[in-house]
Amino acid sequence: MVVWENFNGRADTVFCGVFDGHGPHGHIVARKVRDTLPSKDKSTLSGQKEEHHEFLCTMKDSFRKAFRVTDKELKLHHNIDSICSGSTAVTVIKQGQDLIVGNLGDSRAVLGTRDQKGRLVAHQLTVDLKPDHPREARRIKRCNGRVFAHQDEPDVARLWLPNCNSPGLAMARAFGDFSLKDFGLICVPEVTYRQITEKDEFIVLATDGVWDVLTNQEVVDVVASSDRSFAAHSVVDIANQAWRIKYPTSKTDDCATICLFLEDTAGGLSGSSVTSKGIGSSYREPDQLRKPMLRSKRVTPEDADGASDSDSGDEGSLESFTRLNTLLALPKFGDTSPTIK
């Protein structure tokens, strides 16, 4: 994750981003994106404030160009294997009272704001770009990619190559993962705008490891009840505890959180991260199986058919494993050495 104050030489501008790697070399991909993307955004931003409409168009083009150039550089980087590894990104640029959010994948941005009765409520600023989101599923199918859930993970829709059950990516947009870029996976961010009001108090950026075990409102409540300097750390700690309670036999998914407080006061930023081994880097280790089989409700694609795309029915249960964002291969029943990577 990264926080850049006085972004683009402007005292009223801050850039925040959380990057979540997946696959065998996901931690390397996420680190490369973290180090590259902010400077690309900075180089495409204008130092002058245009009219409102022009400003929005400029910012949207800026985000898209920065993401596209970063992905292209990643593909050309000979020392990073990003064929079946990649990274999500959720980024925010706050410039004065203007808030621009760029999202790629299934990390999330949530706003803590006051409703008409003065209650602090959570407002989700991004959409989780999963393969079974209707719009994403339609694009993937047009590109001959396949979207289906493995029978042992019925709640986890994945993106697969046309003719083989691989790699099984649990998101529809990402940096890297170039084996899927011709089959519906894209690196185009979804860019949204919000004008900050006096009711808006803070923004939380976090990886899916947080949202898999905590609701938007739970995270907002944790931040509101914490000291600002430790707010992100509190979210990560509670998410880590929730993983141990809900899934005691599973490794904790990596969690990274940034809290951006919107008032012009000191101590307006807070960030923390945890790996499956404890507090530390915000990037995943390139080893194995990390996530449990979750029971969260998923969206069903509008044009999904009921047919199964599995090649055979002898895949064994995965309940003793944790869930990956990428399934490079599926273990067969009775196999004593699973080949999931």
Automatic annotation (TrEMBL):
**EC main group:** hydrolase
Under the heading Pfam families, the entry gives: PP2C
List the catalysed reactions: O-phospho-L-threonyl-[protein] + H2O = L-threonyl-[protein] + phosphate; O-phospho-L-seryl-[protein] + H2O = L-seryl-[protein] + phosphate
Residues of the region (Disordered) are: 270-318
PPM-type phosphatase domain residues are: 1-262
Q: Does the keyword Ribosomal protein apply?
A: no
By its UniProt entry, which PANTHER family does this protein fall under? PROTEIN PHOSPHATASE
InterPro entries according to UniProt: PP2C, PPM-type-like_dom_sf, PPM-type_phosphatase-like_dom
Acidic residues biased stretches: 302-317
CDD domains on file: PP2Cc
Listed SMART domains: PP2Cc
Q: Which domain of life is it from?
A: Eukaryota
One MF annotation (Gene Ontology) recorded for this entry: protein serine/threonine phosphatase activity
What keywords would UniProt list here? Hydrolase, Protein phosphatase
Q: Write down the EC number.
A: 3.1.3.16
Q: What is this protein called?
A: protein-serine/threonine phosphatase
